[in-house]
Amino acid sequence: MTVVHRKGQREPKGPEPQSREELAAAFTPPANSTDAGELAEPRADVSWNGRNVEIPDHFRSYLGDKLSRLEHFDDSIYRFDVVLFHEPNRRQAKQSQVVEVTGIGRGPIVRAQGSGENFYAATELAFDKLHKRLRRSKRRKQVRKDGQRRATSLAEATADALPPLPEVTSVNGVDPWDDGLDGHQPGQVVRVKDHPAVPMSVDDALYEMELVGHDFFLFHDSETDKASVVYRRHAFDYGLIRLA
């Protein structure tokens, strides 16, 4: 992956370390968690990353038990990346502790992030998202195994859609996109990411977009051999953009 930043731009400063009292409060277990019992450990490797946060052993055990439950949905996951950090913005005090979990396996990557007033609350939100995405992924795999229950692809669903509108180049000899401003410069590109473009179908692109929780996904369409983008619309619908 290649990351390019704009020249002359200062990198944002990292969050300030929390005091011992603040860290202790952030890792205080909720009152209804006294009957934890024996905690399970995940079979997959776990990579812990605390950004200016020292992760205590009791929280590692608590989170490891939750990670082991995710393996019931996808036993191909061989590594979990866990990142904890503190958001220093005082206006977001109730959402200041952040937990991000990434599952890496033989299939697409699954990722979710949660934020709360302490790391336990943030973990519950993150794992609620992971459970929903992995359950949806598991149901999708079951549908694919049964040819008669195959899900309708986006290309089939939009086969009878209206043709695209003609391109408008001018209205009464005037360029409709001309805002009349000279020397106007919008925001510049400050970050560029390169990722491998493995050819896939539209259905597979939607599948990977749902797992990472993004609103769009750029992919190489195996049907048209062109770069395409699927994106999320209102009312749980999807859109597709293809290069002509």
UniProtKB/TrEMBL annotation:
GO (cellular component) term, any one: cytosolic small ribosomal subunit
Q: Subunit details for this protein? A: Interacts with 100S ribosomes.
Q: Where is the composition biased (Basic and acidic residues)?
A: 9-23
The protein's GO terms of the molecular function aspect are: ribosomal small subunit binding
Show the taxonomic lineage.
Answer: Bacteria, Bacillati, Actinomycetota, Actinomycetes, Mycobacteriales
Q: Which Gene3D superfamilies match?
A: Ribosome hibernation promotion factor-like, Sigma 54 modulation/S30EA ribosomal protein, C-terminal domain
Similarity-based family = Belongs to the HPF/YfiA ribosome-associated protein family. Long HPF subfamily.
Instruction: Say which species the protein is native to.
Output: Gordonia malaquae NBRC 108250
- Identify the SUPFAM superfamilies for this entry: Ribosome binding protein Y (YfiA homologue)
Query: What keywords are annotated for this sequence in UniProt?
Result: Cytoplasm, Translation regulation
Compartment(s): Cytoplasm
Gene that specifies this protein: hpf
Q: What is this protein called?
A: Ribosome hibernation promoting factor
> Does the record carry Cytoplasm as a key word?
yes
Which residues lie within the region annotated Disordered?
A: 1-42, 137-165
CDD domains hit by this protein: RaiA
Biological process according to GO: negative regulation of translational elongation
Q: What does this protein do?
A: Required for dimerization of active 70S ribosomes into 100S ribosomes in stationary phase; 100S ribosomes are translationally inactive and sometimes present during exponential growth.
Q: Please give the Pfam families that the UniProt record associates with this protein.
A: Ribosom_S30AE_C (PF16321), Ribosomal_S30AE (PF02482)
Sigma 54 modulation/S30EA ribosomal protein C-terminal domain location is 186-240
